[in-house]
């Protein structure tokens, strides 16, 4: 046993990716398939989902697509039952499905219902999907959960209040999940994909005129390394594609652990701070 984790939790043979019909989710599904991982894709758009599944199968692995709304408990339960039956096991879960507010504005200039939709999809979705997948993962001896996060989950900003709230909550969930289930062979990770050129990011005014984008392959490389177990010692922590690589994270491993860095926490004023 290493750092409280049972030794020998194998590299992922199967993965489930939500929001997998387009953008980062599709890139992850296809990239993991190219890595030799059988994949289960969850999304709402049947036509796009079928196309993504076909591309995954072109890499010679099993791939299955299930339509579901990740905020609907019954949908999620049925989707996970179907995926577990088709894939036999679930070694890696990537909670990628997410949305952002339609208005890039301060809180009072936004619709609370629009902000709440971000919280529903970005928090309730991962909670429901993980709650359904985790028993399957544990029955298989363990696995890994990746929550697609954002720098806005860790720092304050003047815009996208609901989105930032949702990603902060997701970061806390990642830490709790890793702590609660690491002794049973499950690790959880926060991964910000950087600025990948997708339908969502290109619609955001803050990215107008951007010419430098994070390569989808950078996100795939990190998720594949997580699935392989390369980064298990850094479970519960925050990575950022396009800045971090598996190699750079391993080089920083000892310092990250010594400082208990890359986690969501309340900084204190020093050793005399009563909140220590």
From TrEMBL:
Gene Ontology MF annotations: oxidoreductase activity
Similarity remark: Belongs to the short-chain dehydrogenases/reductases (SDR) family.
Organism (species): Jiangella mangrovi
Keywords: Oxidoreductase
Matching InterPro entries: NAD(P)-bd_dom_sf (IPR036291), SDR_fam (IPR002347)
Name of the protein this chain belongs to: NAD(P)-dependent dehydrogenase (Short-subunit alcohol dehydrogenase family)
Keyword Transit peptide carried by entry: no
CDD domains to which the protein is assigned, alphabetical: SDR_c
Gene3D superfamilies registered for this protein in UniProt: NAD(P)-binding Rossmann-like Domain
CC per GO annotation: membrane
